[in-house]
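Thread amino acids onto this structure.
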């Protein structure tokens, strides 16, 4: 699975559902650091002594200025980078339909609302296309990705699970 030298991180997607069945997702363009220039959810490293759920809430507040309500975990993804082991991480992916405030740009992220029928996968991490559609359909996912240089996927495993 994963070792103690892996970072534990979070990822959160805000979802707006319309009465007509359409859904929008808040994706944020990363403006600096790891993942710069890519759309993603909001999130980051779990700090020492912090629960995963607390980290989800803190990161949402810091990165896009929203106070998150109820969250649901939908995926646990392990990422390894043999050429850059300091990037290795296990990411706990959540969604929410409950928050206070409107997503706002910060030094870290520039959020946008997009239809779930048009997600710009070509501007995201290349693994997202293999698991995010399943999460948006309500499936719980466990995945493992090994990245080579230039963000190329060398290995991938994605499976549905009943629970975490």
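Threaded sequence (164 positions):
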């Amino acid at each position: 699975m994963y070792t103690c030298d892996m970072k534990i991180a979070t990822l959160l997607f805000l979802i707006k559902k319309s009465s007509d069945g359409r859904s929008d997702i808040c994706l944020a363009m990363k403006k600096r650091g790891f993942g710069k220039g890519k759309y993603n959810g909001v999130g980051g490293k779990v700090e020492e002594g912090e629960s995963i759920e607390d980290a989800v809430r803190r990161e949402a507040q810091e990165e896009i200025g929203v106070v998150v309500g109820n969250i649901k975990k939908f995926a646990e993804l392990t990422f390894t980078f043999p050429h850059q082991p300091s990037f290795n991480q296990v990411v706990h992916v959540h969604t929410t339909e409950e928050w206070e405030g409107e997503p706002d740009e910060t030094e870290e992220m520039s959020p946008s609302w997009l239809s779930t029928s048009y997600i710009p996968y070509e501007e995201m991490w290349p693994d997202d296309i293999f698991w995010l559609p399943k999460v948006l359909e309500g499936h719980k996912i466990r995945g493992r990705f090994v990245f080579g240089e230039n963000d190329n996927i060398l290995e991938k495993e994605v499976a549905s699970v009943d629970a975490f």
